[in-house]
């Protein structure tokens, strides 16, 4: 659905940046409804900037990381997907479809602990059809060692073997790694601390990643465990990030020549 905000500001669908504006307004609406933290707007802007320099598309390196991520989630014993405000505002429906296909829970885990946020994010996920939501019952919560931020409060994440962390800050990724958990990151910044610490880093926009993961999951559910393990073993995260950086350099080099053609 097109957000009210974008309709009111009558941004025509023919606008060259319509899709980008649509998601920008989802984030703004989310902030007004408490789903998104104020800092989430800034995080989104940083993401947009990186999206530009990867060409605003799912590159080959992201596709390889997505395959490794899905294979890992399908073979994990206790996987979980962590959900923050930006993720809930941008892709609630897709996230619920993915969690149901993989049969794994969504856990709300917030950096900014503003009163009422967990409740509204729970509603967003429930409205999208989620039935297995963790991180909402204080009695079930425990604290992650070595982490001071609000993200230390965890539920199923404490016992999970694989944790997918979209749009994350570096501290928790480091803490999860110290606890020997396998971390799958979705982050447009290929050199953020999260991206570098994670076992599998998907450098792409979450709005494209989750639909691609859904399709990959449908295909991979037909594979044998040995085939999934081979996909995981063949994946090299450091090399994949380095190839992503090469791709950015190539894209910028090309833009150095081509961007000005618009003026001709
Ligand atoms: O909802 P909360 O309270 O848990 O807070 C969420 C934010 C995102 C505000 C919090 O985790 C935060 O401050 O994150 P950072 O440290 O700004 O990191 C977010 C990372 O996500 C940055 O590296 C961005 O480039 C990246 N990013 C932003 N938008 C997207 C993205 N990556 C993928 N897809 C996006 N749409």
Q: What are the secondary-structure elements, in order, as H or E?
A: HHHHEHHEHEEEEHEHEHHH
Q: Counting H and I runs of at least 4 residues, what is the number of helices? A: 12
Q: Approximately what portion of the residues adopt beta-strand conformation? A: 5-15%
Radius of gyration equals 18 Å
Largest sheet: 6 strands, parallel
Low-confidence stretches: none
Instruction: Identify the overall geometry.
Output: globular
Number of strands: 8
Helix content: 40-55%
Strand order of the largest sheet: 3-2-1-6-7-8
Summarize the structure.
The protein has 12 helices and 8 strands. The protein has 264 residues and is an alpha/beta fold.
Word description of this protein:
The protein is an alpha/beta fold and 264 residues long. The protein contains twelve helices and eight strands. It has helices spanning 4-8, 18-32, 38-53, 60-75, 85-90, 92-102, 117-127, 170-178, 193-197, 206-220, 225-233, 237-258; strands at residues 79-83, 106-108, 133-134, 142-143, 153-154, 162-166, 182-186, 200-202. Strands 3-2-1-6-7-8 form a six-stranded parallel β-sheet, with helices on both faces. A two-stranded antiparallel sheet has the order 4-5. α2 (18-32) packs antiparallel against α3 (38-53) and α4 (60-75) packs across α11. The relative contact order is 0.14. Bound molecules: ligand PTJ. The site of ligand PTJ has 24 residues, from α3 and α5.
